[in-house]
Amino acid sequence: MRAQVEAALAAAEAGDGTAPIVEAGDPVLRTPAVEFDGQVDDDDLARLIAAMRATMRAAPGVGLAAPQVGIGLRLAVLEDAAQVRDDVARARERTPTAFEVLINPRYEAVGHETAAFYEGCLSVPGYQAVVERPRRLMLRAQDATGRATDREVHGWAARIAAHETDHLDGVLCLDRAQLRSLATHEHVARLWPQPTAQRAAQALGFDLPPGASL
């Protein structure tokens, strides 16, 4: 583990502050991450969080999990400026999310409502697919100081938290996706920019979950 952290920090600090993003096919993305329990000291944790934040922003993305920079620890960062059209923001319940560190996160669905939208991943570059996720969830985690930050989240913030926490369990968004919806970023932007995935489902021949918000 120490070697993984040192490699990521060395790569980040030797260049522009960003670490290389691991892509699908690397075993670290398929191995459940180890609970964080002081494997690195406070100074190195702060350096790692800074490198992950810079990497996420440069990608650009709205979340990044430690396995995506080659580190098998239960650590993730989130941040979403929510710079989307008003109709998209309303349909997807997407509002700005401030930068946050999640240590040892877990989540569970609250209620039975789900939502199904196109979703991408920095470790699966160039592609998106429709993924059904809980509309509301209880997120249990600690912040960078070890303080508990348990709370209920909903909408797009819940999607981001679930996506990054899944990474820590060795799960990629494609594992939960409607594979017939798979499309390049270019095709999603050109053909399926609508707030919901209904037109894509009709044209590409996949089913949206009954009862899910679309």
UniProtKB/TrEMBL annotation:
Its EC number is 3.5.1.88. Fe cation binds at C121, H163, H167. The active site is at E164. Binds 1 Fe(2+) ion. GO terms for biological process: translation. SUPFAM superfamilies: Peptide deformylase (SSF56420). One of its GO terms (molecular function) is peptide deformylase activity. Its cofactor is Fe(2+). Gene3D superfamilies: Peptide deformylase. InterPro entries: Peptide_deformylase, Peptide_deformylase_sf. It catalyses: N-terminal N-formyl-L-methionyl-[peptide] + H2O = N-terminal L-methionyl-[peptide] + formate. Keywords: Hydrolase, Iron, Metal-binding, Protein biosynthesis. Belongs to the polypeptide deformylase family. NCBIfam families: PRK00150.1-3. HAMAP family: Pep_deformylase (MF_00163). Removes the formyl group from the N-terminal Met of newly synthesized proteins. Requires at least a dipeptide for an efficient rate of reaction. N-terminal L-methionine is a prerequisite for activity but the enzyme has broad specificity at other positions. This is Peptide deformylase. It comes from Brevibacterium rongguiense.
